[in-house]
Amino acid sequence: MILPNEVYVDSALETHPVVHRIRQGLDHLPWHSRGDLDRVIQDVLSYQSDPCAAGKQILCIRPYQGKLVKDCPGTIGHICCGYKIINVMTNCPLDCSYCILQTYLNNPCLTLYPEFTRIFSEIDEILDAHPHRIFRFGTGELGDSLALDGIVRFADEAVPLFARKLNAIFEIKTKACSVDHLLTLNHGGRTVCSWSLNPPTVIEGEEHRAASLEERLRAASRCADAGYHVGFHFDPLIAYPGWDDDYRRVVDLLFEHIEPCRAIWVSLGALRCSTSLKQVAQERFPTSRIFSGELIRGEDGKLRYLKPLRVAMYRHMVSWLRSYDAELFIYLCMERDDVWQEVFGTSPGSTAGLNSWFEERVRQFTEGGQ
Kind of pairing, strands 95-96 and 295-297? Predict the structure, then answer.
């Protein structure tokens, strides 16, 4: 676990029970109680030559203004999976060259919102309003789910809570390997532990401070042995000379560690980024080569590989994955209907259609005894 160097807490939260618990784990660090955390953030943005790197050394604990549980924003004209994002924490101590958070957020600091009770109340509101639907919630969109959870311990409360929900499932998304605290939790088959995977050459060159491929797969195996459903995200897929051999070996290694029937889903998504992210990433990681390939601006304004290359990469991945399990649930992240059609010969047609596919998959795993 990679810890920050210092902690700032909003003075209104000093006595909060979650803050008290976190302080017990980080009491060896300098703690500062402040009523003006925006000033701390502004100082990082204004006076640090690399605000992203400097922000990863600072943990800010503050209240959250607005809803803590939100819909995935998706991309216009592309099929989204209908995910519900739990904003318990933004940013993470890992430092991937392609991370959208380098430009997506105006706050580079590790920031925790400790109002877990509010989060669970908002989740209950959603579930109670739609008792016949199945919702997927997760914490791994604006920060890594596990990188600091050994201290934050959000999973300690969330996993048993979701175990009691009949129309929801909780997904933990990570590039970390610290799973000891998960193994004894009462998950009730309602939590998915999922890992982002890439070949070792990509992990070593682009996913700085993240766990190795072997470490991630061993952690996934331990969670599967503890009865968790597991998921895997090949996102971003990165094209480079020899990518096909490397990714094929990752698939082979994945199923050496995990029985295919334990994988509830696998996502595929090709590298995509904004022009501003490309500029920031090239400045922060001058040795990175992933932005040197041919990227064109799509209708959503993001830079992407040409469609024929994306389709070819997806088809290869689907072939390799389904050689282990022909029924494996594979989906594309933020792609258009026509790309789905070319890869699979079928498509959910819309975000609502893909969400219904997910609901059926969750029912298979939670009601079918997988």
Answer: unpaired
CA distance 108 to 56: 7
| CATH code for residues 6-367 | 3.80.30.30
How far is it, in rounded angstroms, from Cα 195 to Cα 209?
15
Q: What is the pLDDT of residues 185-209, one digit of tens each?
A: 999 999 999 999 999 999 999 999 9
Pairing of strands 89-90, 110-112: antiparallel
Q: Please name the helix (run of DSSP H) or strand (run of DSSP E) that holds residue 10, with its range, or none.
A: strand 6-10
Of 236, 225, 170, give the one whose Cα is nearest residue 199. Answer: 236
What pLDDT band is residue 291 in, cutting at 50, 70 and 90? Answer: confident
CB distance 144 to 173 below 8 Å: yes
pLDDT of residue 104: 74
**Burial class of residue 36 (count of CB atoms within 10 Å of its CB; 0-12, 13-18, 19+):** exposed
Question: In which band, very low, low, confident or very high, does the pLDDT at 368 lie, cut at 50, 70 and 90?
Answer: low
Residues in CB range of 272: below 8 A, 6 or more apart: 236, 298, 302, 303, 304, 334
Sign of CA dihedral 157, 161, 163, 169: negative
Look over the chain and give the mean of its residue pLDDT values, rounded to a whole number: 94
Q: Which of 151, 145, 150 is nearest to 172 (CA)?
A: 145
What value, to the nearest 5°, has the Cα angle with vertex 270 and ends 328 and 366? Answer: 30
Nearest Cα neighbor of 140 from 121, 154, 126 is 154
Residue entry with tokens 């048993």: 160
pTM above 0.90, yes or no: yes
Token pair for 47: 């006076």
